[in-house]
Prior knowledge:
Layout: H1 15-35, H2 40-52, H3 63-84, H4 88-104, H5 110-127, H6 135-162, H7 166-184, H8 194-210, H9 217-246, H10 253-264, H11 282-297, H12 316-325, H13 332-353, H14 361-369, H15 374-398, H16 405-422, H17 427-445, H18 452-474, H19 484-503, H20 507-531, H21 539-565, H22 574-583, H23 589-595, H24 604-618
Amino acid sequence: MVQDLATFDPAQFNFVLATRTTLALFLPLIAAQLTGWTALIWVAFGGFLTCIGDCVEDGDRDQFMRLAVGAGLGSAAFAGGVLAGVSLLPAVLGMALCAIICGLMGLWGPAYATLSLPVIWSYVDLGLPAARHGFTDAVNMAALFGTGGLFALALTVLSRLIMPLRHQRRSVALCYRRLAVFSVSGATPGPVSAETQVRGAIAAARACLQLTSAHRPRTRRTLARLSALTEAADHLFSLISAEKEAGNPLDCHHSLHAIARGISRTGAQASVPMPSAQDGNVSSAALVRALRATMTLLETESDALAPVGASASLSMRAGLARLRANLTFRSVALRHALRYAAVMCVAVLVFWVFPKPFGYWVPLTVTVVLKPFAGMTLARAVQRLAGTVAGLAIGIVALPLLPFVALKMAFVALAFFLMMSVLPVNYSLAIVFLSAGLVPFEHVLDPSLSLDVAGYRLAATLIGATLALVGGHLLWPDFEHRSLPALLNQTRRAMAEYAHAILSGETAAIVPAHRTTGLEVTNLQTALQRALTEIGGDVQALQRHERASVALQRLFVLLNVVRLAELPRTPPGFAVSFAQALAEPRAGAAAACRTLLTPADGVLPALFSLCEALADLEAAPSSQDERMPPAAAHPVAKQA
């Protein structure tokens, strides 16, 4: 986890997000310096925090509404913190209410889960430590904070007008960058693999495109082209996987990188050398044809391309229904919200007695470390502490080299710009830049501070991380490894659907089954990756699930190989037997499927490989409570 500090891809840095966040913070601060109106600092904080809350989904059709909601909720929380900060009891009670609301915001997706952070920071980091706690003070400061949020919204509108669909282009280009890495990578079994990264990038690109509005004809054509390029990446992924499974050499990573660069740019992409197919190798020839077709898509502006599938925004009624459904202690979301509130209340107690004015870093650390699952909390604690230590060291060394306010502000602006650039993709590195910039920033806000502030910050971070770890593991803890049996079963069912569609020749069902299976495999592997960071898990059970995950990944590749080979037929009964063996784990299923193959079958090599992969899956047995209940009918029958 600490290696995250040195692991990053500059191509993923979001410089547009960093630019508007930096402007939202520093333009009001500069205005405050020039005019002497120090109240503009609250405008700066409002814009800065609102932009941070919008760092996950950047460019979707709900972005403007979400920014407005964030500005409104942040203003309300700020006012509530100012009023409650008059004494300890209302501060704790208000913290409990605010934490429960923010803890439940994740019900509406990761974008709203991220948006909850600046809302709760407005309460505990700005409102409670405020110098004055009168009603007029609360209204005035909340209004200024909301103005900063609206300023961030205006900067977002401007950036989208200047660079339309930039986020969508980056999402699709990332698919090809991941493909390029996958094409030259060696075997990497387990949940952290290049294959998982490619599938995740493709799923994220599809979701990004589905959440994008297309009002103008040119926008619709561009989105259609990006959608076609995403599906082309999926097809190339299957072809490259087939080549690697067959042990054939590949030389296409230069072409894939060139396609990624072409997608990122608005203009047409110049031609690049294509890899040549080996004589007699049909799959390599197919790969070359697919690469050339993909290059052609870069310059296509035709309305004949398949339109992007619409994904409706979550309605108010559906959102309330989701909230009602989770108002039970069986809900992970509700348990997290209650756990969040309890730990945050303790953090406010610590904040109340911590040396002023930096006690707010204790609850702030809790807000970013405490996650719904214990393993995620542990990983985030390590990332937070490592990033904080490294960043404070940089800030302490840099501060004596910045004797003037202008130099300090320039250093802070650079640090915060880099922080926002990497925040969506590398949390550890973002915290390094944040901590480095905060040391001179606080000396600008309060020149009387000494370097002791770094020690106080580190102590507060340690206390907050400890509270989050203790609360995450003692208060109704949720562990990712407990969800693995259900995810494994879902993946097997999805793969059974996909296998039956391919082997029985159900052409119409192949594409949707392929998408579903890829998503389930990715979900299983990412959940397993997080489960490996948890304390107290059953090591043998995790090893079984890891072996099953690897076997399912190879099965998925082999099914893609069979699909690309376009087999004319399969032996009678093989499709149903193989799909049932996948959906319902039982000993000897692979051997039974193998007996259906005879030497007369022209498809023996590919189908025997499937049976071998199924046998590997059987060799990763699950415990009795992980088995699926007997199905009343074959799962494919539900599709008919």
